[in-house]
Amino acid sequence: MNYRHSYHAGNFADVLKHVALVSTLLHLRKKDKPFAVIDTHAGRGLYDLGGAEAEKTGEAEFGIERLRGLATGNAALSTYLDIAKSFGADRYPGSPLIAERLLRTGDRLVAVEKHPEEFAALSAVLKGAKPVRADGYERLPALLPPPERRGLILIDPPYEAPDEFEQLARAFASAYRRFATGIYLLWYPLKARQDIDSLGGELRHAGATRLLALTLDVGKQTNAPDERLSSAGLFVVNPPFGFDVEMRGAMEEILPLLRQGPKASARVDWIEGEAQK
Ligand SMILES: C[S@@+](CC[C@H](N)C(=O)[O-])C[C@H]1O[C@@H](n2cnc3c(N)ncnc32)[C@H](O)[C@@H]1O
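Above: query sequence and S-adenosylmethionine SMILES. Below: predicted holo structure tokens.
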């Protein structure tokens, strides 16, 4: 394993993903009925922004650190910032800890992490749920449909494997067959447009009819290392009512603060003309 999320925690891509996660969870909380959150690639849960790995890349400086002082009326963004800041100035919560904060009694988190060190760290910081040590793609079918019949599936792989897009598309197709009414958040780095377009095509082919793409491009800084990611997004299947509007508002607010280069942009697109229902 080479990938360690500690190098990237709190960067602009985490900000986008985690605001979307919060927006979805706030929606699920609107009904009393319990829901499940399945996080297939959960990570270590809590990241040390003062640690050697985070300091080496400095990515959080261009992400969460630029937002700490923001006062906003956008519910998803302000809830996300409150949660992030509640862990202290040098720490950043990952998706399972953010989700855990928004669960009510009766709601359930299943956090799956494959790698032993990350899994051990996650086990130590989760308050309620016991994480699952497994391959998230392999474990997912057995978790669906959740008994609650309401839920959110976050698939946030490291994109280390050359066929990660294909693995993700296959995992989604199999999950969607079992749980077509679930909300799916599928994260991706945007390096080659073609990969994203073909992933979108695969999701449609698997049956996703309500499909939204969020794209945040912070622009390339002239002196940034070539390998530093500057554009990332999420496919959202079955986005809740009003999610697109809330996310557009949040992304428009954070873009000026996260902008690194002249070509920065934020987009919320329904795929193949699907209108909000
Ligand atoms: C991008 S990080 C996850 C970040 C986390 N979702 C968050 O938002 O805070 C990806 C994680 O997936 C783990 N991982 C890699 N391959 C996996 C697999 N097949 N199944 C489950 N976890 C895996 C890595 O160890 C890493 O911790």
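Residues 273-277 have pLDDT under 50 and may be disordered.
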